[in-house]
């Protein structure tokens, strides 16, 4: 059964209407059960959900066509296997384009990638689509094609595809005649889904189903422990030694128990079992896995280590690699037992230099050089021995080669002279053929230029080929030496080297090549093929050659020529030099001239690749990428499968590595209470094997001590998600574990920062954002950065939001001002979604929850697993920014969190921080939320002496100007006014106006262009009249008379008593305080009433003097 065609066949059968129909498989997608009666039921239960998930992914990609990669097609040709009606195979050439990014034919696909590559599903259409309707045009509907292969060559990129129906192309397409323009648009990558499909449709008679058979039903009591093995373990010296090693490690008790249990599994040959390690946040899961893998390496247990994503694979790989290199007696020795394979670009290997030593592509390139017959270890070792034994003979051979190269070069120069005369010969030949002038003219105009153009094209093709080869070498960055080291020097040398020059240059060249081979054979060969003793000898040889190199630089030509002679007049230099030469010869001859070669076919590179995979003890790849191991038929089977982050893996995807031939046991590491696999369809298709086994009662080894979070941070998630099973380690309990990055209670270890005035918005991808929270978060980050620079404290800040639109908005607001390429920088900032932060940790975490509505709707924010991840990333400080009203009304875990924060006195309003209050007002101003800004006093001047009342006119003017500097100056001026400060009379700017408002209005300069127009008014509250500041507008000086005339109508309605109250002044020392008097008092009683500032709003405890006057 060709499973790939089956899944692709389903996709090919869909119309656009089918793709967009969410109910297409509604009756066929059943809920996946927790237990299964048979293997057939197990495998079949995932088939329809997988098809529906594929349809859903395709529907999502079509909704964002305008952002999809699109390339113009240069030509479309039927392939040699093309045959109607089913075998619709084509070769499609793509034009060079800035949009074309693909140059990799590796087909791993677990991360988003815009490159066109193998496994992609593309739409062939005659328009560059921006929406779904562009694909389904009546005259030219789109054609779906599946990319079977991709080839990058000199002329461009070629795709080998199978299409859903014949591609209608013009016969003359690609010629000079006008033809229809076609485009190839990437829709999605099918690689992982096809691999899953293959695993689900494998033949039970030939596939390894032993482990899967044991996960169908609820496990029996003690089924995971083999009594026979348990008895053998007690008598095993190797097991006792490993147990002693584990006990002496720095692992805690729960970690040691988990490792010991997994190690014991390897020895069992009676059952096929699955072990589970449950690693809640901060419990040292990666450390435990690293130690486990290092133990399996020491036991020479062939193990496949997988993870759902490239990021997770790299994390666990680096942990083991660090342990291997730290314990290595020679740099890198032992790395040859480890192999990491996958897509170099998607893994971003260039950002992880330490992984090059075990990355398969790099290893193949390096070992190809070391095994090369003309430049490898054997060639250079024998060449060095020959040079030291008889330099005169080597020099004779060199002279002979030099003469041959010189003759060849002379012949090439002669050919070039013939080329230069080609044009003249062509013209002469034309004159002989054509006697009339007109025909000769045609010959010169058509034939000669054509021949010249042909010659020019041939040169260009060669030039492009050389340039491409050069670019590839630079891109690979392997650091390999050239195969012919003397080539450049021979080109430069018009005369042959002297004997002395030759010996020294040849020695230097061979010494460098041997060093390259020694270093890389030590790193890249498995320990089973190169012993530590041999490695020691090889490095001793290199050290000896380095010492000899110094002697060689000072020795004379006569001594070099007489190395094999025994002269009576031997001098000290000769004796010393010859002794060193003999020593080096002895060491070099003691080294193995060859290592077990991987060659078996004509494809050396492929053989080396299979050789590396065959000899490695621990292999790393993504779960999807492990499908490639099924294709290596003769490879030594793996014993153990270790899947890290197993709770993030769809159960059906885990079937890919579980079926590998010879696989006996599996170890799953994860936490089902954190994020699962991302899917579109429910029906528990995203449920992991880890989660299902935990649900039906399979035993888990819990890592129960967390080492990351301050106890104030771990308190809520431990109680809410883990039933208080997790203990805080001693290190996080220490007093010095607490950190203070900003002053104030609002910025304590754990804090909920209430932002009540946010506004939810959607971006063009239907993801939510909240610009008020964006401003608040940006201001907090800015404050930490300033404090960091001031105190020189190192701090790593992480900003998390569940919505990608919010992540983008925060990133855009903050920009690149805090980015630093310096790893030693005191400040670092990471802004990611919750999903992107799983497994990560930072010193300070700021969470932006985004949702802000009256109903308490929080959408997928209510997901407990997502909440758990967000709340457990911080080491020292966790600050949650959100709307307490929305989250409190949600009925979700967030309601509990808000209540918990209030109960623990960790609840704060954002306006408690003046800078945050200003940031909120600025955001509201940008959003034109004038209805909120009218009551901005509570945000900006809550603790001021004067209450400040704003008019809509003021906020509209500020909204029109949209000047951040002006806004800050206005706020600064209002802050002074609300504290009681008043401008001296002599500094006031007078505006001539005789209307009613002239008795009340004040205008203070903000800058040279704008003035703040305000007045004293009063309001009634709690049976008292209280004076307030009324802010009318921000206006230019020339517009103030016009504004005053408009306000004359307002103030013209004031009676004398009301005017009198507005004009009363209560001097409080150098400041002015608001008057306050009972509502039932008359104006003449006002001066007799004890005017007072509201005690709780005073700025000074003891005023110097107090008096009451009229203006």
TrEMBL record:
Compositional bias of kind Basic and acidic residues: 468-492
Listed Pfam families: AAA_11 (PF13086), AAA_12 (PF13087), DUF6469 (PF20073)
DUF6469 domain mapped to chain residues: 118-201
Keyword ATP-binding attributed: yes
Keyword GTP-binding attributed: no
Any one annotated GO CC term: chromosome
GO MF, one example: ATP binding
Keywords, sorted A to Z: ATP-binding, Helicase, Hydrolase, Nucleotide-binding
UniProt domain DNA2/NAM7 helicase helicase: residue ranges: 251-472, 494-679
Protein name: P-loop containing nucleoside triphosphate hydrolase
